[in-house]
């Protein structure tokens, strides 16, 4: 059928009601958001953002309400979608923005694709990877993997992807979203090593929309975390309190979930796998720790400083 591109949509969307089908690849995926309130009677008040791209650039796509439980888990990073009967809206200005792996990619930030059950009822098709043709010109998923030795030189809030061998994982902890609210964030601390430094990655991993993976972070698994943000505490010794925290678009993967993921082609991921082959499993097992209370960033050594 006659296709359109994201670039053409941006130029012509005001003058049309019906749009030609779109062929796009998912590059980023946000966590699922629940926006239900007691006074509003919505059956499935869910929303999820995706960043999708074709040869002309990248645009946000929003999945609404009952389409979320139906499609959210199937739309992975790297998935190719054929979209028909979608709506175009001006984009929501306050949403988070992932850092694209390809800094040259054009971003269409004024509008977003809206996928609904009605007005109009969107038709979504997933194109299997083996049927994707090179002439469609869809971009590949690109990453920004860093090694542990590179981390100390990165600025606060820098976005990156990491892979490492888990040596410590803490218990799940809760933090209030707002001071007197009843909602909590669930998170856990983990350490992962990649052989490039004596220090591990210190990772603050919030439960994203992947509970199956979050609960299976164990010592000795290969952990991949994407779209992590660098956090530096400059008040104390800056090198001792650098850690990474998840963002709204972070995806986590552990051993058993890596097969077929786009990052398996990345050079730094391949280098890490080569390094793990040189390690003795028994030696690493002796250094692993699980559970317990993990105060971080650590309090000062004496009460006067505290």
Automatic annotation (TrEMBL):
Signal peptide: none annotated. GO terms for molecular function: single-stranded DNA binding. It comes from the Eukaryota. It holds the Pfam family RADX. PANTHER family: RPA-RELATED PROTEIN RADX. This is RADX protein. The gene is Radx_1.
């Amino acid at each position: 059928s006659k296709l359109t591109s994201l670039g053409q949509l941006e130029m012509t969307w005001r003058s049309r009601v019906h749009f030609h089908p779109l062929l796009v690849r998912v590059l980023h995926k946000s966590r699922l958001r629940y926006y239900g309130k007691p006074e509003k009677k919505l059956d499935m008040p869910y929303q999820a953002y995706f960043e999708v791209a074709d040869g002309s650039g990248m645009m946000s796509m929003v999945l609404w309400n009952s389409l979320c439980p139906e499609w959210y888990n199937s739309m992975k990073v790297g998935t190719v979608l054929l979209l028909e009967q979608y709506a175009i809206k001006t984009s929501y200005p306050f949403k988070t923005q992932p850092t694209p792996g390809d800094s040259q990619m054009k971003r269409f930030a004024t509008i977003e694709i809206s996928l609904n059950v009605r007005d109009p009822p969107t038709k979504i098709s997933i194109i299997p990877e083996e049927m994707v043709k090179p002439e469609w010109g869809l971009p590949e998923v690109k990453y920004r993997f860093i090694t542990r030795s590179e981390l100390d030189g990165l600025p606060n809030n820098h976005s990156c992807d990491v892979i490492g061998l888990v040596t410590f994982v803490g218990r799940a902890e809760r933090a209030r979203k707002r001071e007197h609210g009843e909602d909590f964030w669930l998170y856990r601390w983990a350490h992962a090593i990649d052989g490039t430094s004596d220090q591990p990655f210190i990772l603050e991993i919030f439960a994203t929309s992947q509970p199956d993976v979050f609960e299976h972070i164990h010592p000795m698994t290969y952990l991949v975390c994407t779209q992590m943000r660098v956090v530096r505490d400059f008040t104390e010794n800056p090198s001792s309190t650098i850690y990474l925290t998840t963002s709204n678009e972070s995806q986590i993967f552990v051993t058993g979930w890596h097969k077929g993921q786009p990052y398996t082609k990345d050079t730094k991921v391949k280098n890490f796998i080569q390094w793990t082959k040189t390690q003795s499993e028994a030696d690493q097992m002796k250094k692993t720790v699980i559970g317990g209370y993990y105060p971080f960033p650590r309090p000062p050594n004496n009460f006067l400083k505290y």
